[in-house]
Write a structure and sequence with these properties.
The protein is of the alpha/beta class. The strands form two sheets. A five-stranded parallel sheet has the order 2-3-4-1-5, sandwiched between helices. Strands 6-7 form a two-stranded antiparallel sheet. It is globular and about 55 Å long. The N terminus is likely disordered. The chain binds adenosine-5'-diphosphate and magnesium ion. Adenosine-5'-diphosphate binds next to α6. Its main location: endoplasmic reticulum. It is found in: Endoplasmic reticulum lumen. GO terms for molecular function: ATP binding; ATP hydrolysis activity. Belongs to the ClpA/ClpB family. Torsin subfamily.
């Protein structure tokens, strides 16, 4: 804990900082050695994020492209006209939570443990739909309070399909370019929504590509945007059901996560085996790949659990 007097003094120093533009780096270092503020913990590493996505996320060319591009454009814009709103969609075990964690880790020095990265899980934070009014007030106050404290706050909402209907719309004023109502720093925040909604339309697109002998990597982002937005808005349990966040176009990009094939899952197995010091065990890779279940019935192209069941299966076969 930093003592209050030191905290106040370091805050003063921060306000005076623009006066010392040529020695900005030195003063920032001094300030940050005393402060726990978000300006100090915010250390975006765009190249690191791109590399992590490219190297450690398998079979997700759309997520790699969309996340790298949107995050890099957003962070390079000095004064963004609206916050960055990413909505990640796809079947279970395809890498949505993994990618959101990579984002948090490459933005803040203390990664996902940063006090400026806020994670919400509906079953934990908003378990009872009948209390939606109470949750709306609490969520609005939480977001507003934290944005006042730190303009670069990151808000992650996992399992959106379990979000009580009507709750997420309380964020509408924070997500748009509302210059008059709110101050500029509300537009530097990043929001990430995660759900399985749209998994069928995504899987249909990959199957259609397969049938027409088109490589899955040739599927483009804009082919899926509208279909996912439509699903999110119209499904009763998407967290975005009838939501103005969708109808007003406040989501920057809907990021599709494609269903993983056996080859992708085997890459997950190999990566995890290597982490445990068993890089050469191709027999285990084969065995785990063969022990998982695949869909659809005709074709059996996609792992029904993505890479989620991999650690448990490795334990059985190692
Ligand atoms: N595309 C992928 N590439 C590499 N690892 C993956 C991928 N998808 C899932 N995994 C691994 O599988 C586990 C579950 O993934 P997770 O991101 O939690 O899936 P979900 O899409 O359900 O959020 C994690 O350990 C993650 O590292
Ligand atoms: Mg998840």
């Amino acid at each position: 804990m930093v003592p209050f007097a030191v905290k106040m003094w370091s805050r003063c120093l921060w306000t005076l900082l623009p006066l010392f533009v040529p020695v900005h780096g030195v003063f920032k270092k001094l300030y940050c050695s005393l402060s726990e503020s978000c300006e100090c913990d915010f250390k975006p590493d765009i190249r690191g994020l791109e590399w992590d996505l490219y190297k450690n996320v398998f079979g997700q060319h759309l997520a790699q492209e969309a996340v790298s591009q949107e995050v890099s454009t957003f962070l390079q814009t000095k004064s963004p006209d609206r916050p960055l709103v990413l909505s990640l969609h796809g079947a279970s075990g395809t890498g949505k939570t993994l990618v959101s964690s990579m984002l948090g880790s490459h933005l803040y020095g203390s990664g996902m443990n940063s006090p400026f990265v806020h994670q919400f899980i509906p079953t934990l934070h908003f378990p009872q739909a009948q209390h939606v009014d109470k949750y709306r007030r609490a969520l609005k106050d939480w977001v507003q309070g934290n944005l006042t404290e730190c303009a670069r706050s990151v808000f992650l909402f996992d399992e959106m399909e379990k979000m009580p209907p009507g709750l997420i719309d309380v964020l509408e004023p924070f997500l748009g370019p509302f210059h008059v109502v709110y101050s500029t720093n509300y537009r530097k925040a990043i929001y990430v929504f995660i759900s399985t909604v749209g998994e069928e339309v995504i899987s249909k697109a990959v199957l259609a590509a397969r049938r027409s002998d088109r490589d899955r990597d040739e599927i483009r982002l804009n082919e899926l945007q509208e279909a996912i937005a439509h699903e999110a808005f119209n499904s009763t349990d998407s967290g975005f059901s009838g939501s103005r966040v969708v109808s007003q176009g406040l989501v920057t990009v809907f990021v599709p996560f494609l269903p993983l094939t056996r080859a992708h899952v085997e890459r997950c197995v190999r990566a995890q085996l290597c982490q445990r010091g068993h890089c050469g065990r191709s027999d285990v890779v084969q065995a785990v790949g063969g022990a998982l279940s695949y869909s659809p019935k005709h074709g059996q192209y996609f792992s029904t659990t993505g890479c989620k069941a991999v650690p448990a299966k490795i334990d059985l076969h190692l």
